[in-house]
Amino acid sequence: xxxxxPTGRESSPASVEPASVYREAATFVAWGxxxxxxxxxxEVASAGAPNWTALAIRAVWAGTLLAVAAMLRTGRRSxxxxxxxxxxxxxxxxxxxxxxxxxxxASPLLAFTPVLVMVLPFVAFxxxxxxxxxGGLLLAGTGFMMIADGVSLGSFLxxxxxxxxxxxxxxxxxxxxxxxxQAERRRREELADAVASxxxxxxxxxxxxxxxxxxxxxxxxxxxxxxxxSHSDATFTHGICQDCEREHFPNLAGEPGSPGEAAGANxxxxxxxxxxxx
Length: 278
What we know:
Blueprint: H1 13-38, H2 40-47, H3 52-73, H4 77-101, H5 113-123, H6 128-148, H7 153-202, E1 214-215, E2 221-222, H8 224-231, E3 234-236, H9 242-248, H10 259-266, E4 274-276
Antiparallel strand pairs: 1-2, 3-4
Helix pairs in contact: 1-3, 3-4, 4-5, 4-6, 5-6, 5-7, 6-7, 9-10
């Protein structure tokens, strides 16, 4: 039996699921751009005067993230993946520039570095290695600033320990998210297979007019019981109707307890009953 031809509106779960993840990430990235701009007030309150270089860096960072969000919003991997790579690498580089412009190792944003180091691998859902590389770059750049400024060993080890732990946490979160994606993809594919099987049984069955066998998708003829059992959860039990009993077993017809009499008590002549297994 042939299945109905696919339409242009249909798409596989494997292609739909990443697209929806890209669109959800676009919202997350857009909110990140807003937070980066609003956080400039914290710098002003800490320094007592606006830092125009830092504000310019924030404006470039926010604009980049908004452009990346627009690329992710398309849901197309050929556009969204390069956008995600730009957003991740530029976030690491611009955060280092922001630290340099706001006091380097004395910057009030230094405590934010471990947080961003953890976020980058997690948001790199389609290429965790890219987020890990960007997080490592950010952590190494921050350590270089601290060494150049001659901070104490304790302060340096504190930042390195926090950043390293954040990097591991980001990697673990990314792995957990990827496992969840794979499980959801398998569930959707199984559901699509089940729907396709139901659609096959609802179609037109090519049935031989003489032997009553069914032609399969591969072109082979097989018994109707075997075909239905292989395409559904139904199994068959066989009896004999009253007409066939009278024709083939005239000596048993009408006797108490005969198969035809038992079948005729609850069924119409000529009806074949199929039982469904629990």
